[in-house]
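Worked example 2:
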Amino acid sequence: MTTILKGCIVSAPALGRLETSEHGYLIAENGHITGIYPVLPEQYAGAPVEDYGNDLIVQSFADLHLHAPQYPMLGTGMDLPLLDWLNTYTFPQEARYEDTEFAKEAYSIFTEDMKKSPNTRACIFGTLHVPATEILMEQLDKTGIKAMVGKVNMDRNGSPQLQEESAQASADATVQWIKDTLDKFENVKPILTPRFTPSCSDALMEKLSEIQKKYHLPMQSHLSENFGEIAWVKELCPNTHFYGEAYSQFDLFGGDCPTIMAHCVHSSDEEIALMKKQGVYIAHCPQSNTNLASGISPARRYLDEGLHIGLGSDIAGGTSVSILRAMADAIQVSKLYWRLVDSSMKPLTVEEAFYMGTEGGGSFFGKVGSFKEGYEFDAVVLNDSTIPTPLKLSPRDRLERLIYLSDDRNITAKYVAGRKIL
């Protein structure tokens, strides 16, 4: 099957670079990119063309970190730091997902908004409840978005309403969930999800490591988000030198276990070196880190040192599912880091933030997030004609404006793996 889109095509073939083709043609065969062409190649003469006029056709957006069950509490408790926020608002909210009727209602709102968002790929935390997590996966699958969803593991330091009975009970529930969902859905796959070290005993982490090796699942968790959290991990794991070792001692930190670690706001030199060696992906969540007063992640350093880094909305620490908003936030906090923390760390550019939100995060899913030949055909069409201006703007300036305004109403269409879903 051939798909041809015509419009103002904007792509980032490499970190820090933008290429544009006004009135260009983006062509895909059987769900994979063939290329971008200034004129329609002769062999496609007579083929149907989706003509989007002057709209921007851009690479797809990947959200590497968000918590679907927290969606009903957007904008709640933003005056508290991380650990207090979790105990006061988040854990009581997530406990409600034991009720499957509540889960159906809450997740229907979340998945509908995800479909309307510019994101085509996402890595998502559910809760520890297997039935509710399967409801989330089923509803998300129907949207056409490609996603990885995790049943959360937590056997300690939760609440009476939100904690699994034992490491064994958590592992057993996880294995059954994997068996139920591994091949059940077309668009959604399971991902191993220990909430974070304070929530998971060593016994549970050992069992999750065994599960990972057996089923070869990727993994997602949290790392070095908050000073209080880091100190707590040191108390819980006195045998480790830094937070990342609390995962790596169980072979759950990259390498043969594809891993996303959210935040990495206060990672030490040793931790950064291990992330680079093991190919760990960093989910940079600038809005959440600001809202919960965690700090500013040194995204410039991670880029300059060649680490894998993408963007995350971190709902509900963040308040917008749009990765366009995360791009703007990433640029803004990098300016504060440069001005207030380290003047040698230059702020992120629009080109760099756009790459992080597209191929930077999309590559966790494979050949995703780029218009390079052979990549999966994901694309988003953005219409900025609703934003009046007397100026004649370049495609780059139009993209920058759409990033900073981050309005989902500007989305004309969305394609995922060759299929138009919006």
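Residues 359 and 369 are 4 Å apart (CA to CA). The longest strand covers residues 19-29.
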